[in-house]
Amino acid sequence: MGRILKKRTSIDDALRCFLENVFPLRKTEEITFEFCTDRILAETLVSGRDVLHYRRAAMDGYAVRASDTAGASPANPAQLQLSDRIETGSAIWVHTGTLMPIGADAVVVVEDTSIEGDIIEVRAQVYPNRNVADVGEDIKRGDLIFEEGHLLRPCDAAVLASMGLDRVKVFQKPIVAIIPTGDELVSRERAGEVPPPGMVLETNGLMTALYVRKWGGIPRHTGIVPDNPDSIKKAVEANLDADMIILSGGTSVGKRDHVPDVLASLGDVLVQGIKVSPGKPTVLGIVDQKPVVCLPGYPVAGFVALYFLVRPVIKRLASIASPNECVLRKRLATKITSKKGYANFICVFFEGDKAHPFTGAKAGSLSTVAKADGFVLVPENVEVYDEGEEIDVFLLE
Amino acid sequence: MGRILKKRTSIDDALRCFLENVFPLRKTEEITFEFCTDRILAETLVSGRDVLHYRRAAMDGYAVRASDTAGASPANPAQLQLSDRIETGSAIWVHTGTLMPIGADAVVVVEDTSIEGDIIEVRAQVYPNRNVADVGEDIKRGDLIFEEGHLLRPCDAAVLASMGLDRVKVFQKPIVAIIPTGDELVSRERAGEVPPPGMVLETNGLMTALYVRKWGGIPRHTGIVPDNPDSIKKAVEANLDADMIILSGGTSVGKRDHVPDVLASLGDVLVQGIKVSPGKPTVLGIVDQKPVVCLPGYPVAGFVALYFLVRPVIKRLASIASPNECVLRKRLATKITSKKGYANFICVFFEGDKAHPFTGAKAGSLSTVAKADGFVLVPENVEVYDEGEEIDVFLLE
Fold it and tell me: Which of B185, B367, B393 to mutate to test the interface with A (most CBs of A within 10 A)?
């Protein structure tokens, strides 16, 4: 029988306690660049090549010996002979990217020249290396390009490709098993019929699966498990090959809410109950070293637990560094009052620089979340945000 | 022969002129929810069902006639008979989500009760509808849920699924043909060998393809096309079945730069040359009503054109509304000087609330972009941002 460590914990403490028990997977795979965007590099990359690998003209114009242009100006142009090799007094046409001809050490840009037959008039003096790009100008052989853990963007892929790579080692995405529990649930395969009274379509698992994928995991959505301890236990055990398990429903104190006890019988319950509204009945635990999150069955409560407790765990498993969170500053269009002792999750929609909160009866319905642009998390110790107050608003993903 | 409308235009003017000629595709397809995240709804959705579709208990406790609890308090509890049907003086156990028994109009929460045999002691008065969720509480049949053009998030999918939908109509993603041009280019299929001097691996097409996919398009990456007008013309014509064409390279004024002329021969060149550094030689046009962008061959210049001119066009084609851009306020760690008359693109890396600009020789290399966290776009009319100045920084995607 496992331990139950914490009851009714703040979001921050709950997350800290959970993350202390979650470790990056570090399983790797090799992929080509085609789908590398947003993957995490599992190796530190040092360039094996010089990029550029040759000395090239950096502008369109004439490759010359710089010394042949000494003193050249519009009033006193130098005259060079168009040629196919560089000697004293000769010039070769080059365009951006051309290999510099042997013997040339500078390029006069075409705008500073004119041509008459095979005589080039040069109206500006150039110094050695002017408009010439050297070997290794972009990347030198041996340069450290990216460290392990770097999140790959399209521009990064192009840099790696320029070094002659055609694949990279990245961390595998965590597999997240999603187990909906509840006798009242009807599979979405039967979405065409209205369920009998007392029964509802299973939709929290769908929402969870789509967020798991968005946040960098691979969802494995299992069938619906009935509200009995044995079935729930078997479902958890059958999914211990996954990297994380999310159960949905059955976390409250009702007679049917077996999930916390089952979790305690299989491993450790770290946190039972979070000081956030909605989202209170969330349970966090570890079974067989795998993080297990039990989401409340109420959709908005489940949503809150996903955002604040599942998202950071998936990112930790996947070795994704904390992102630069996109926080907007908005003015509250109407006052918010918040339940004391709880962090309060409140959806808002935007109108210019104003955030309008959704309050009242509908605040707990997922269709309200779906109408929202963002959300506010009112801290535990704040009871009121006044109308017109400037607050941090998070974009709803 | 097409027209050339504008030379050396500001980014804003160029983009405005281009977008006036680009229209949302509006071709639709039906998809299931599994991969609906970030897709754009192509229909306005009105619910065909009530969600909830039955009257249910909103808490765990006892379903009762509210009138039977009149005056109940801890000092003066009401006594009710546990039963399987509701009559005067009876109560039925319910948990959250249970269909309300016929005749019951309220739920007393379990915390306000105790049980002794089959007698329930009720220590609080409830009013009709207390702790009862009504039919249509979340969504009423006929409610407008989302308008056409809505970007689907995971929470939205769950709402649609709760209405009994199992698929949605979305706009097709635009197909974007990507045509790398240049005699100096070597296919990445030969990435294993260092190219001969004067030749370079084709990597701009890769970068472009990955950004196209990230921004909501489907990239179609063609083979490398040599620097001659006929080949370029044939490649453009062969891809006019795509929704947009991006050519890379050959846009400058060098002797090999045929792309603008080819474009003018096939359609209209709207803009040739943008007042941005790097990125000046970008060309924008329309052929057969399809937007065509010619990216400069220099990787950072190509990158700038992708960000400021390709991204908004893909979003327009895909009917993706302007996103809430993630702009961060940072203090400049060192002074930036900027080329007058040009918007200057400058990469920065972050250190706390400070942004360190990359300047000097390396500023034009893609490996510098790859080292950056974000970028600053210094407006045309600004020549200096001072050290310590607070500026807008865009996150680099």
Answer: B367
Mean pLDDT for all residues in chain B: 92
Say which DSSP state A361 is in: G
User: Per-residue pLDDT tens for B282-301?
Assistant: 999 999 999 999 999 889 99
pLDDT for position B279: 92
Domains in chain A: ranges and CATH: 4-25+173-317 (3.40.980.10), 28-51+145-171 (3.90.105.10), 56-133 (2.170.190.11), 327-395 (2.40.340.10)
CB contact under 8 Å between A203 and B255, yes or no, is: no
Q: CB distance A145–B324 less than 8 Å?
A: no
How far is Cα B314 from Cα B17, in angstroms, rounded to an integer? 15
According to the 3-state scheme, what is the secondary structure of A219-270?
Answer: EEECCCECCCHHHHHHHHHHCCCCCEEEEECCCCCCCCCCHHHHHHHHCEEE
Cα atoms in the Cβ-side hemisphere of radius 13 Å centred on A56: 21
Angle made by CA atoms A114, A117, A122, in degrees to the nearest 5: 30
Structure-token match 């379903």, residue found: B63
CB A158 within 8 A of CB A197: no
Q: Which residues between 301 and 340 in chain A have a beta carbon less than 8 angstroms from any beta carbon of chain B? A: 303, 324, 326, 328
For the question of whether the overall pTM of this predicted structure is more than 0.90, the answer is: yes
- Does residue A1 surpass a pLDDT of 50? no
Bridge pairing between strands B90-94 and B132-133:
unpaired
pLDDT in tens, A158-197: 999 999 999 999 999 999 999 999 988 999 999 999 999 9
Does the beta carbon of A360 lie under 8 angstroms from any beta carbon of chain B? no
Residue ranges of chain B whose pLDDT lies below 50: 1
- A97 CA: distance to closest CA in chain B (Å): 7
Q: How far apart are CA B72 and CA B351, in angstroms?
A: 62
How far apart are alpha carbons A393 and B92 in whole angstroms? 44
> What DSSP designation does B102 have?
T
Higher pLDDT, B256 or A377: A377
Does A194 sit within 8 Å of B53, measured CB to CB? yes
pLDDT-based confidence at residue A256 (cuts at 50, 70, 90): low
The three-state secondary structure class of A141 is: coil
User: CB contact, 8 Å: A352 with chain B?
Assistant: no
Record the tokens describing residue B317, joined without a space.
Answer: 């084609």
Cα–Cα distance, B161 to A203 (Å, whole number): 6
Which pLDDT does position B169 carry in this prediction?
Answer: 98
B200 in contact with chain A, both atoms CB, cutoff 8 A? yes
Chain A 141-170, CB below 8 Å of chain B: which residues? 143, 145-146, 153-159, 161-162, 164-166
Record: contact A365-B254, CB cut-off 8 A: no
Q: What percent of chain A is modeled with pLDDT above 70?
A: 95
* Beta bridge partner(s), residue B117: none
Closest Cα to residue A216, out of A287, A316, A292?
A316
Residue A96 has pLDDT above 90, yes or no: no
Give me the residues paired with residue B185 across strands.
Answer: B200
Whole-complex ipTM = 0.92
**What's the whole-number mean pLDDT along residues A276-305?**
94
End-to-end CA distance of chain B: 38
A369 touches chain B (CB under 8 A): yes
